TrEMBL record:
<protein>
    <recommendedName>
        <fullName>DDE Tnp4 domain-containing protein</fullName>
    </recommendedName>
</protein>
<keyword id="KW-0539">Nucleus</keyword>
<dbReference type="GO" id="GO:0004518">
    <property type="term" value="F:nuclease activity"/>
</dbReference>
<comment type="similarity">
    <text>Belongs to the HARBI1 family.</text>
</comment>
<dbReference type="GO" id="GO:0046872">
    <property type="term" value="F:metal ion binding"/>
</dbReference>
<dbReference type="InterPro" id="IPR045249">
    <property type="entry name" value="HARBI1-like"/>
</dbReference>
<dbReference type="GO" id="GO:0005634">
    <property type="term" value="C:nucleus"/>
</dbReference>
<keyword id="KW-0378">Hydrolase</keyword>
<dbReference type="GO" id="GO:0016787">
    <property type="term" value="F:hydrolase activity"/>
</dbReference>
<keyword id="KW-0479">Metal-binding</keyword>
<feature type="domain" description="DDE Tnp4">
    <location>
        <begin position="29"/>
        <end position="195"/>
    </location>
</feature>
<dbReference type="InterPro" id="IPR027806">
    <property type="entry name" value="HARBI1_dom"/>
</dbReference>
<dbReference type="Pfam" id="PF13359">
    <property type="entry name" value="DDE_Tnp_4"/>
</dbReference>
<keyword id="KW-0540">Nuclease</keyword>
Length: 255
């Protein structure tokens, strides 16, 4: 998949803002463990936290359920946070080489804010990666609870993309019986074909048939403890404040 240009990132951000009301978002991030039979002479390299053998599919998805970037092939035993940190996507974001657009205000006349990707508790909070507040943080704070709702709402795109992928390609419903290097190529091929075939009509059909999102053989990442910089916390708090402001809140949130 070609690396997005600055203009492409801007288009993705606009669509997330228009369609999911999450401004400055340039993608939704998630990872799944794709199950396979124990490879020859692999030892415990592919043995994941669920007690099964897998390779990891890490994906960044746009607002229309298309894959922007995918990273395939990490050992199932690797920590989920480490998989992202060591991926090309994680490295390019951390080193500011992903050609992400400059900071942009969330509203007219507002303070410039960075463009971010969004993920769940499996990923660390970073200045470029927003994750939900903890359950403890939202228990007595309506604004933080609202932020989690907005992030979860926009993050459905990646879960739905995985659901559509698995509905189209039934190989993801069973343990794949080939060697890992071939599994990697199969997964990449399915992701590319998904982008080629994706259209709104098909999405509606597939999503209606996916009450649980993805099959059992797509195992979610395990949550990690949040160890983040102060800058990341400040950025998340500013998004949180905007989502609860007069200009940033949604009509139904105030009912």
């Amino acid at each position: 998949m070609p690396k997005p240009t600055k203009e492409k990132w801007k288009q993705i951000a606009k669509t997330y803002s228009d369609k999911w009301q999450f401004p400055n978002c340039v993608g939704s991030l998630d990872g799944k463990h794709v199950m396979l039979f124990c490879p020859n002479n692999a030892g415990t390299s592919f043995y994941n936290y669920k007690g099964r053998h897998s390779v990891v599919l890490l994906a960044l998805v746009d607002a229309n359920y298309k894959f922007i970037a995918v990273d395939v092939g990490a050992f199932g035993r690797n920590s989920d946070g480490g998989v992202f940190a060591e991926s090309k996507l994680g490295t390019s974001l951390a080193t500011n080489t992903a050609d992400i657009p400059a900071d942009t205000p969330l509203e007219n006349g507002g303070e410039p804010m960075p463009h971010v990707i969004i993920g769940d508790q499996a990923f660390p909070l970073k200045p470029y990666l927003m994750r939900p507040y903890s359950k403890e943080a939202v228990s007595h704070n309506a604004n933080k609870k609202n932020f989690n709702y907005r992030l979860s709402r926009a993050r459905r795109t990646v879960e739905n993309a995985f659901g559509i992928l698995s509905a189209r390609w039934r190989i993801f419903h069973t343990d794949i019986k080939v060697q890992p290097e071939i599994v990697d190529n199969i997964i990449l091929c399915c992701c590319c074909l998904h982008n080629m075939l994706r259209n709104d009509e098909d999405d509606n059909i597939f999503l209606q048939d996916l009450p649980n999102g993805v099959p059992d053989n797509f195992i979610a990442f395990e949550g990690i403890r949040n160890n983040s910089t102060r800058a990341a916390f400040v950025i998340r708090d500013k998004f949180c404040d905007y989502f609860s402001s007069e200009n940033g809140s949604l009509p139904w949130e105030n009912q």
